[in-house]
Design goal:
The complex is a heterodimer of chains A (300) and B (321).
Chain A (H helix, E strand, L loop, with lengths): L3 H38 L6 H18 L6 H28 L5 H24 L13 E4 L2 E4 H23 L1 H11 L1 H6 L4 H23 L10 H15 L4 H22 L4 H15 L10
Antiparallel strand pairs in A: 1-2
Helix pairs in contact in A: 1-5, 1-8, 1-9, 1-10, 2-3, 2-8, 2-9, 3-8, 5-6, 5-8, 6-8, 9-10, 9-11, 10-11
Chain B lengths: L2 H17 L1 H4 L3 H26 L7 H18 L4 H23 L4 H20 L1 H6 L13 E3 L2 E3 L4 H24 L1 H11 L1 H6 L4 H27 L9 H14 L5 H16 L6 H16 L5 H11 L4
Antiparallel strand pairs in B: 1-2
Helix pairs in contact in B: 1-8, 3-8, 3-11, 3-12, 3-13, 4-5, 4-6, 4-11, 5-11, 8-9, 8-11, 9-11, 12-13, 12-14
Chain lengths: 300, 321
């Protein structure tokens, strides 16, 4: 019924879709973290992509630097994620909290985090070298359904990042601290009046977003590589997803992440990987021109 | 700051620069550094006008610089346009690009503007490097290697006769600085400031946000493009590596040392930072790390730059100024 070429093309497209789904799920994770921190603290973090690499490098140190054999990725996650939380919390307290008292602090935060991004990028280059590092796949092997081949790695990435988002959503809606975060996002002054420690919530939110992007870094660095210079590009991607989905809308971010993951996979397949960022940029401009509040965002 | 104070600071800074070749004119290395000081002073000031005066959070200034350089270089190499003309065309080209980038930014707030302009910066490198760039004549991953030097009436300004080249750079840089100074102190500049402080109130007084914000984009990208083109003709080579983050962070340090929104400060900042970064050369790869850390420290500790304490004294003396 179909010619040989059509069937081959079909398999190729399936591969591209799988790649799009697994990167898309990690983008969703990153976009949720970004939406959260911007929605709650109004601080825009330019070093977001470098925290992505930080997660990757921490995992790399544990696996290759120390030679961590025991427990595999589970142990890596157990150690790295709390570490990312501590880094995020400390940085917020040390750098962003003092700026909050000044006039025009949102812009100052942008400059500061951009400086932090430059610092981390060059620090990674100095410490780990310009050469890209690779992480071993979380699970080897493939799953074959008829003629279709799915890598376990892709499936695991998809499952783990979706699991991460769901867990986060549950925490936000069902725990005391999650509700406190939502309260601060809705009305900071009101939250303070009812006795929610605003500063601590800000720092925790920042730290949680660091954890999420670090987790994304560990997952996605297995497929890509850890590139010390890639922080800026990753930050832009996470932000395009966030803006496309609508700032502050977690569900919009989810849809946008999969759309953009697909778009990138298809553009990469058709034209070459380096066009991915150009395509994203065009999409961003189109979004901002036609629907500035994003896919699911509420207008001002 | 008053026009008089601005003029004095600019005059003293450029005056010292103009005298220095009498002492170090035969040391090529130092002359090169001084030319760099003058070039970066213009880029840092343009960026300062954008961020500090107009309050538009643009991170695309380096991209405009590189666009200007490439535009003029391609015109001179491929179409044999005389450099003086090609520099002007490059300026107009980047001004056009500035307006194009500015248009979507007009409606956007804070982080969106920063991200769109940073996106221009990030998307420019694959464009210059890839097939689109090759088709335009950017030389792909090699870059432009044979940009002809500037020549006026048969006299060639290149690094072989560095002292005249230095004075030409001084002239170009000073002209740009004066244009910026008068722009800030003119009706335009007041309009920029009013829009920055309260856009709604300024618009209620009849200041068109649309017109003036586009003007800021056009003016700063025009000057940045011109100086970028000049840089290309002076160096003779251009590569997309300029878009790496090193240059970006050094420029940010210049602006922060000078203080955001304290105009001649950016010029002093550029002079200090270029010289300082040469002194830091023995640090090697750690120089970039230091620059990044400096941005963080400066934002936290020195919000008004080196001009801050000086300005406070001025304000104390004349409360109306």
């Amino acid at each position: 019924m179909f010619s040989e070429d059509t069937i081959l093309l079909f398999y190729e497209i399936t591969d591209v879709i799988i790649a799009g789904l697994s990167t898309g799920s990690v983008y969703a994770l990153m976009a949720v973290g970004m939406t959260l921190v911007y929605g709650v603290t109004k601080a825009f973090n330019f070093a977001y992509g470098d925290f992505f690499n930080m997660g990757g490098y921490f995992a790399w140190i544990l696996i290759f630097g120390i030679g961590f054999q025991f427990g595999g990725y589970l142990a890596v996650l157990v150690i790295v994620l709390p570490l990312m939380f501590a880094v995020g919390y400390g940085l917020e307290k040390l750098m962003i909290a003092p700026l909050r008292k000044r006039a025009d602090w949102e812009n100052k935060v942008m400059m500061l985090t951009l400086g932090l991004a430059l610092f981390l990028t060059s620090l990674y280059t100095v410490v780990f070298g310009v050469k890209m590092k690779s992480l071993p796949p979380i699970l080897e092997g493939t799953l074959e359904v008829g003629q279709l081949v799915f890598g376990y790695q892709d499936i695991m990435i998809f499952v783990m990042s979706l699991g991460g988002i769901l867990l986060f959503g549950w925490l936000l809606n069902n725990t005391r601290i999650g509700m406190a975060v939502k309260a601060v996002a809705q009305n900071p002054i009101g939250a303070k009046i009812v006795g929610i420690p605003k500063e601590r919530i800000f720092a925790s939110t920042f730290a949680i977003s660091t954890v999420m992007v670090g987790f994304g870094g560990i997952l996605l660095s297995q497929k890509w590589f850890i590139n010390p210079m890639s922080g800026g590009t990753i930050m832009i991607k996470a932000w395009v997803v966030t803006a496309f989905g609508g700032m502050g809308s977690i569900r919009g971010g989810l849809y946008a992440a999969f759309i953009i993951g697909m778009l990138e996979a298809f553009v990469g397949w058709l034209f070459g990987m380096s066009y991915g960022i150009i395509a994203l940029f065009i999409l961003l401009l189109a979004t901002l021109a036609l629907r500035p509040q994003g896919l699911m965002g509420k207008g001002d | 700051m008053r026009l008089k104070h601005m003029a004095i600071i600019i005059g003293v800074a450029y005056g010292i620069m103009a005298v220095l070749p009498l002492f170090v004119g035969d040391i090529r290395f130092i002359m090169n550094i001084m030319i760099m000081c003058l070039i970066w002073a213009v880029v840092a000031s343009c960026w300062d006008v954008m961020m500090g005066f107009a309050g538009i959070f643009s991170f695309g200034q380096v991209a405009f610089f590189v666009m200007g350089g490439y535009c003029s270089g391609i015109l001179a190499i491929e179409y044999h346009v005389p450099p003086v003309l090609s520099i002007l065309i490059a300026g107009l080209f980047t001004a056009g690009m500035g307006v194009l980038v500015g248009l979507p930014c007009l409606k956007l707030a804070g982080p969106y503007v920063a991200l769109v302009t940073f996106g221009v910066h990030m998307a420019l490198q694959p464009t210059l490097r890839g097939e689109i760039g090759l088709a335009l004549g950017t030389g792909g991953s090699v870059g432009l290697l044979t940009i002809p030097p500037i020549s006026i009436y048969g006299y060639t300004f290149s690094s072989t006769n560095i002292v005249p080249t230095f004075y030409l750079t001084l002239f170009v840089s000073l002209t740009c600085a004066l244009i910026i100074m008068f722009a800030i102190k003119s009706y335009w500049g007041v309009a920029f400031l009013a829009l920055k402080d309260s856009q709604d109130f300024a618009m209620s007084l009849g200041i068109s946000a649309f017109k003036y914000k586009l003007m800021v984009f056009a003016l700063t990208s025009f000057l940045t493009g011109i100086i970028g083109a000049y840089y290309g003709h002076f160096y003779g080579v251009l590569s997309f590596r300029m878009l790496d983050l090193d240059l970006f962070s050094i420029l940010m340090v210049m602006m922060l040392v000078g203080g955001l929104g304290h105009f001649p400060g950016a010029i002093l900042g550029a002079f200090l930072v270029v010289a300082g970064s040469e002194l830091m050369a023995p640090l090697g790869a750690y120089r970039a790390v230091t620059m990044g850390a400096l941005v963080v420290i400066l934002v936290l500790a020195l919000p008004n730059g080196i001009m801050g304490p000086f300005l406070r004294r001025l304000e104390n003396r004349s409360p109306t100024g």
